[in-house]
Design goal:
Blueprint lengths: L18 E5 L8 E5 L4 E6 L6 E7 L5 E7 L8 E6 L4 E7 L4 E7 L5 E7 L8 E6 L4 E5 L8 E4 L3 E2 L5 E11 L4 E10 L16 E2 L10 E10 L7 E11 L9 E5 L5 E2 L1 E8 L3 E8 L5 E10 L2 E8 L4 E9 L2 E10 L1
Parallel strand pairs: 20-26
Antiparallel strand pairs: 1-2, 2-3, 3-4, 5-6, 6-7, 7-8, 9-10, 10-11, 12-17, 13-17, 14-16, 14-18, 15-17, 19-21, 21-24, 22-23, 22-25, 25-26
Length: 337
């Protein structure tokens, strides 16, 4: 090696610095420095516009911060920090939510902790921590435990009011963080006191063909929310079950919903819908994930026939749904590129 090394100062007030790592802790392409500085844990971010390194103090209440490690400890996509504190005998996690650092105690009896590293020690896909405890003459590791058991929510029994329901679609919207699931089971019956067995599990919004018995009057669903992530859980926002009466093409009594363009359609399609009586009604279009992508009519509607053009939708499978007092009409539409 014939070159020379040039010393650069990051922080000339870093009292009792013990440990540092380089890690990309934010959204920019530059590496940051995370440091254990005895009385604090800090991050130094190099600024292209301001001279030198800018310090962000993560925790200034730590006693004897000796080492620091980084990984996505909560599986949310952001890098988090773990620090070992000698004097306070603490192993601490700092969860990064994208803008703030949230302090979580992992072990407050890590006596004489000097080093901490991150690795998936047990091979379960979740990061673990390992460290040295000087005062105890130990090398220890910590695994994340206490995973939540699946939660099951069961709906009340819905009465369609008719004996001839044809079950069409289930739509639902949800938030699904990594390593979490939402799934449904349904059942239908003519006797609300004897609903019978649950259907096979449904993992995606879509058709109910093969899941419920057509012609049954009553319906019930249960949803299971599960996680293998100790910090995150799925959430369910809303559920829509669509059905139509047997023998009514494109609608229920007092309504008609039809498609005036070929199906599959290219680019746009035209819906024709009619009401025998004036009243409150809504016409919406769902996509395959259960999201409402078009709200075409809402509120009081006059009797008679109406036409609505739907355009601007990407290629996919959609369901147009006309609902009013005592009726539901449904049309499945395929849009081609």
């Amino acid at each position: 090696f014939t070159g020379s090394w040039i010393k650069q100062t990051v922080d000339d007030t870093a009292t009792d610095p013990f440990w540092l790592i380089f890690e990309n802790l934010d959204a920019d392409p530059n590496l940051e420095i995370a440091a254990a500085l005895a009385s604090r844990v800090s991050i130094y971010d190099y600024s292209d516009t301001l001279p030198g390194w800018i310090e962000t103090v993560v925790d200034n209440q730590v006693s004897g911060a000796w080492s620091v490690a980084s990984a996505d400890l909560d599986s949310d996509g952001d890098k988090d920090l773990a620090a070992m504190a000698w004097y306070s005998a603490d192993l601490i996690m700092y969860e990064h939510d994208g803008s703030n650092w949230i302090r979580n105690m992992i072990d407050d009896n890590a006596s004489g902790g000097t080093s901490v590293i991150v690795a998936d020690i047990d091979g379960d896909g979740v990061p673990d921590l390992a460290g040295t405890l000087f005062n105890e003459n130990k090398v220890s590791w910590w695994r994340i435990g206490g995973f939540a058991t699946p939660g099951v929510l069961q709906s009340s029994i819905f009465d369609t009011g008719i004996q001839t329901a044809i079950w069409q679609y289930i739509f639902y919207s949800y938030e699904l963080p990594q390593n979490t699931t939402v799934c449904f089971n349904l059942r239908s019956s003519d006797d609300p006191d004897n609903m019978g067995p649950w259907s096979p599990t449904i993992y995606q919004p879509g058709s109910l063909v093969g899941y419920l018995e057509n012609g049954d009057r009553y319906m019930q669903y249960q949803v299971t929310l599960a996680t293998s992530n100790p910090y995150l859980t799925p959430s369910l926002k809303d559920v829509t079950i669509l059905w139509t009466p047997t023998g009514i093409e494109g609608g229920g009594e007092g309504s008609v919903l039809s498609l005036l363009t070929p199906n599959p359609a290219r680019g746009s399609f035209t819906l024709s819908w009619s009401l025998e009586q004036p009243g409150a009604a809504s016409l919406v279009v769902f996509d395959a994930s259960g999201r409402i992508v078009r709200s075409l009519a809402e509120g009081w509607q006059e009797a008679g026939t109406h036409q609505t053009v739907v355009d601007g939708l990407p290629a996919g499978i959609y369901a147009a749904c006309l609902q009013g007092e005592g009726f539901t009409a449904l049309r499945r539409v395929v849009v081609l590129p």
